[in-house]
Amino acid sequence: MVNKQALIVGAGLAGLTLAVALRRYGWEVSVFEKSAALRETGTGLHTWENGLKVLEQLGLYKRATRGVQFLSSMELLDNDHKLIHRIPFSDQLRFCVLPRVQLHTTLSDAALKLGVQIHTNMEAKGADPNGTVTFVDGQQRSGDLIVGADGINSVIRDSISNDHRMETVADGSIRILIPRNEQDSPGIATEYWNGTRRVGTATSSDSLLYVYLSAVTDDEVALAKSFSIESWTSSFPFLRHVFERIPGNDIHVNKTFYYVYVKRWVAGKVVLLGDAAHAMTPNLGQGAASSMTSALEMAIQLNNSESIDDGLSKWEKRIRPMIEMTQIMARAYGSSATVWPAELMGIRSHVLTEVLKSVDINEMISTAARFVTSTNL
């Protein structure tokens, strides 16, 4: 399907992935970003097999993973260092932590090189199902396909859908890349639980360690802008050597996460992508990778279909079950940490150990990681 024009609102990871894929299929693509410059916030990004396959299919794998270390396993442990669950990685199930800036730059550079038109300082106001985007400054642009990849607070979604909801999750996190040292375990991603607090560490590169700390929203000390080494050390004394490398005031804190549910992702010529359609907590590390997978699958289905309507219908039918299962399992995983009854905390490790022995449960958790797009580019 060539000689078609796509207008993508939002220059995040999902929007840029779609821009690159559609451009490779011969579409004319314009991306509109409300910020003054292209930039990606955040630190490290858990990247599973599905995200890595997207990069391979786009021809961007080597650049995006340059300098990154691939890990051999992921371990979930309780505060007594008792192993709750272990996921071994292999050539068929790869895992690494990509610096978000490196991934975003790889995608944006590829888009520009392919001839994608990227416009900054263009804040959208809404879209019409007939294929027109209206911007805050009064400008309007029309195309064959309008993509709302404008995040959790999507104005494109709000302009085309009355049948959606956003649910707040009462937990937050601190995520940061810090210098590695000899005390850090190489090759293994670990996550420790103690009460409603969690700490995860994973090697990103020879020089960087990715750290995330999670707590319930009303744990004000844990999620303070000024990082409390002593408070976190009281929960995880064996990780003090990690906490001491976290800057006291230069940290990014998310105090609230959201789930977004939309009954239909398509309205006429307008389609929702990524967090605009299906935001989720980062508990399974699939928010970005599943959105990138969805973007590539959309481009493939559009290319293989006789019409845009048919392509979008096939895309949503194939992608939605994967996304919805991932949302369900991310929520269940997070709830085990944040809303587990205090009086039953003593048996949590045992219960989780037994539950996670289930092959069916593990397949549901890894639904997105195992997803394979329809065809290669």
Largest sheet: 7 strands, mixed
Ends distance: 13 Å
Total beta strand runs = 20
**What does the average pLDDT come to?**
95
Structure description:
It is a single chain. This protein has 377 residues and is α/β, with parallel strands linked by helices. It has 2 domains: 5-71 and 85-168 and 258-366, 3-Layer(bba) Sandwich (FAD/NAD(P)-binding domain), CATH 3.50.50.60; 169-254, D-Amino Acid Oxidase, subunit A, domain 2 (D-Amino Acid Oxidase, Chain A, domain 2), CATH 3.30.9.10. Helices cover 33% and strands 27% of the residues. The chain has a 7-stranded mixed beta sheet with strand order 5-4-14-15-16-13-17. The chain has a 6-stranded mixed beta sheet with strand order 7-2-1-11-20-19. The protein has a 3-stranded antiparallel beta sheet with strand order 8-9-10. A hairpin with a 4-residue loop joins strand 4 (73-78) and strand 5. The relative contact order is 0.17.
Can you describe this structure in just a few lines?
The chain has helices at 13-24, 49-57, 61-64, 100-114, 155-160, 229-235, 240-243, 275-278, 287-304, 308-338, 348-355, 359-365; strands spanning 5-9, 28-32, 44-48, 73-78, 83-88, 95-99, 117-119, 124-128, 132-135, 140-142, 145-148, 164-169, 171-179, 188-194, 197-203, 208-216, 252-254, 257-262, 266-267, 270-272.
